[in-house]
Amino acid sequence: MKLAIIGGSLLKEFDSFTKVTEERINTPYGTPSDNFVTGNINDMEVVYLNRHGFKHHISPHQVNYKANMFVLKILEITHVIAITAVGGISEKMSPMKCVIPDQLIDYTHGRAQTFNDGNENSVNHIDFSYPFDDFLSVKLTQAIEMNDFDCESQATYGVTQGPRLETVAEIKRMERDGCDIVGMTAMPEASLARELELKYANLSLVVNWAAGKGGDIHDVPKIISLEEINQRIVDGNKIIEKVVNKITTMLD
Ligand code: HPA
Fold first, then answer.
1. Domain containing 69 — which CATH number?
2. pTM score, two decimals?
3. What is the tally of structural domains in the chain?
4. Cβ atoms of residues 7 and 81 within 8 Å
5. Domain of residue 113, residue span
6. What pLDDT shows up at residue 164?
7. Rounded to the nearest 10 degrees, what angle do helices 226-247 and 134-146 cross at?
């Protein structure tokens, strides 16, 4: 097993990661979000990338997902843990909960989303019935529970285009579709990982109630507080770091 961790708004940096090398790698698909850092967590070698870049300047719809995932393949990564901050739609998905989604619905558009679009490949399809790797997802759930953090491990992640948050009507539609959480970056990351035969799982932290959720909107028109989201990202970072720390002691 060779593990990569993709951070975003969460896990921009973490103390338990000891950096060994840092490489800038270009690809036929363009430039990845940033340098790929190889280091150790608890004696396990891990490759780390932040999809928004270390300056956090690349919006979800502008990330070069193809370049990012292609470099992981070049580096002979076998397993990927993707960290994302999400909004909570269904009742159980309250702020500061960890969620390991087992399904997703893709609402994004206009993103370069497949390696199977060039001349070098004939028409090619992948099975994507179960978008997340079961083994890694179970391990992540165990790592969360061993830390005594709240965890939901059955959830559908709705992936929106961003960078704006959703309207109340959009979230109602997503709820009718069966989405439990909403974020902006799980696609096309997850399907590109599948195309490259990388085992990919998602560790999400709920940082806000999605638009119109978490209160009676009929009494008080409620909007999402970005300050609150930012504070939860700061606080949640410690949770995510502990989970990542734990899982590296549970994998060979
Ligand atoms: N919507 C989409 N993406 C998000 C949200 C949200 O409410 N919160 C964090 N990422």
1. 3.40.50.1580
2. 0.96
3. 1
4. no
5. 3-248
6. 97
7. 100
